[in-house]
Design a protein that fits this description.
Blueprint lengths: L8 H8 L3 H18 L1 H4 L2 H5 L19 H5 L7 E3 L7 E8 L3 E12 L11 E8 L4 E8 L5 E9 L8 E6 L3 H15 L9 H4 L19 E11 L5 E8 L16 H37 L1 H15 L3 H12 L3 H11 L4 H13 L3 H8 L4 H37 L10 H10 L2 H4 L3 H28 L7
Antiparallel strand pairs: 1-9, 2-3, 3-8, 4-7, 4-9, 5-6, 5-8
Length: 477
């Protein structure tokens, strides 16, 4: 036997929280709200402004998995190590003037490597020389391994004549000189003349053996490594500092993308953007649609006929293709999309539903009594009819939020969303462009996709709980 739906929003929400689906959905939404609240603490807006600036991410590992991934595979994965000039823990510096003619400056970098995998396969490492001399500098860079073997990676003159000081020379593991030196070292210690990898970070960190250049077969040589940088110059007052970055294979709770950007920033910012856009759009459209439905049902006549005809027209207009065209032509912000959606669909099927509900409500005794007392039509609408329809409006809002969350993600995936905000859809778009799934960078796809799915699931579950309460046919004694 069916029972009447609760009257008023408060009663409907109270009964909704008594259901299992309602409690679960509220718990998920509270978690998303807390995630949104954490955004300003971890990633304030100035961090977001640097999201599209490649220079802001040069010291971050590219395509690094989340740190918790090592617990899944059972291996200790390398973290990013940054050694700055003046770091006495990792850099021993000494200089000496020879015969009053030239100066020799030693910078010896020391670090311990006790991980089970090699450094980042994409970026490896980079070494920066900060040269503050008025004369050219002869530089020798020697890599010393824990097994006592050494590799001369670089031996050349660096010109600083006519250049503003200090001069910064940065060399990455992709530098051809490093690659050639690593390959020659592998040939010398193995005695094999074969095709070797172009990734020095494999050879330099591998145990000596026939497979020391094979990514999948090489074994990591653990221990203490040294990089000795010897600089010789005729500028007796000159100086040379060094900066070293060893890129890891894991970073943060969400990993990094192709450009080294911390994906946790995009995940955190994606939550409030998705919630705000989906909720705001749903609320505005639900109340606009309901208002037109109430007006049609209350005033009737030509007003009712006009709104019904208008509804029929707008229901056949393809909103999504038009929205894509507008976004493509004008590159509007995510908040301007809300106004475009209202303009493209001021009425919908819910307008007709609200109209039929209004026709029933306006025949009830208390409404007829209020009309007899001379209450104005607009006062009747907002004081007596709208509160009765509010539970249905709330249900409509909740059930339509997932659609607008997916809509924002779809526009961003197509490259038509807000170009400034790092949303979940934008992250998925970037992952698709760089073939993240094919390359094995699963976190780049799975984490933002999970965020979208959880948000949609929470609102769908909440809508299901409210629908069972508001819809009399689903209510059982």
């Amino acid at each position: 036997m069916s029972v009447p739906a609760p009257v008023g929003l408060k009663a409907a929400l109270k009964e909704m929280l008594m259901t299992k689906s309602g409690k679960l959905s509220v718990a998920i939404l509270v978690g998303l709200v807390l995630l949104s609240v954490a955004v300003p603490f971890y990633a304030p807006y100035d961090v977001v402004k640097r999201w599209n600036d490649p220079r802001a991410w040069v010291d971050y590992p590219e395509c690094a998995a989340p740190v918790w991934y090592e617990y899944i595979i059972g291996k200790k994965l390398p973290r990013t190590l940054i050694i700055e000039p003046g770091d006495e823990k990792h850099i021993f510096k000494h200089s000496q003037v020879m015969g009053g003619v030239y100066k020799v400056i030693w910078n010896i970098i020391t670090f311990k490597y006790d991980y089970d995998e090699f450094p980042n396969l994409k970026t490896g490492f980079k070494l920066a020389l900060i040269i503050n001399t008025t004369q050219n500098v002869l530089v020798n860079i020697t890599w010393i391994r824990p097994d006592g073997r050494s590799v001369v990676l670089f031996y050349d003159m660096i010109s600083v004549t006519g250049v503003t000081l200090p001069v910064v020379k940065e060399y990455t593991s992709a530098y051809p000189g490093f690659q050639e030196a690593a390959v020659e070292f592998a040939k010398r210690v193995t005695g094999l003349n074969e095709t070797y990898t172009k990734m020095p970070q494999i050879i330099l960190f591998a145990k000596v053996g026939p497979y020391m250049s094979h990514t999948g077969k090489a074994e990591v040589l653990k221990g203490r490594y040294k990089i000795m940088i010897k600089a010789t110059t005729f500028d007796l007052k000159g100086d040379v500092d060094v900066r070293f970055v060893l890129f890891g294979r894991v970073y943060g709770l969400a990993g990094t993308d192709f450009w080294g950007r911390d994906l946790l920033i995009a995940i955190l910012w994606g939550a409030p953007v998705a919630l705000a856009f989906g909720t705001l759009t749903s609320v505005v459209l639900a109340f606009v649609h309901a208002l037109f439905g109430i007006i049609a049902g209350w005033f009737g006549g030509k007003v009712d006929e006009a709104i019904q005809k208008l509804t029929e027209i707008f229901m056949v207009i393809p909103t999504f293709p038009i929205l894509i065209l507008i976004s493509l032509l004008y590159r509007i912000s995510i908040w301007a999309i809300v106004g475009v959606l209202v303009a493209l669909s001021p009425v919908s099927g819910s307008t007709l539903t609200v109209r039929s509900m209004t026709l029933q409500i306006k025949e009830e005794q208390y409404v007829l009594a209020a009309k007899a007392y001379g209450v104005s039509g607009w006062r009747m609408i907002f004081k007596h009819i709208l509160p009765r329809i509010l539970p249905y409006i709330i249900t409509s809002i909740v059930t339509s939020v997932p659609y607008f969350v997916f809509l924002e993600a779809a526009l961003s995936f197509l490259g038509l969303g807000d170009p400034e905000l790092p949303t979940w859809g934008k992250v998925l778009s970037d992952a698709h462009a760089k073939r993240a799934v094919y390359m094995g960078w699963w976190w780049w796809v799975l984490i933002p996709a999970t965020g979208i799915a959880i948000t949609a699931f929470a609102f769908a579950l909440l809508g299901y709980a409210l629908d069972k309460i508001v819809n009399p046919r689903l209510r059982e004694m």
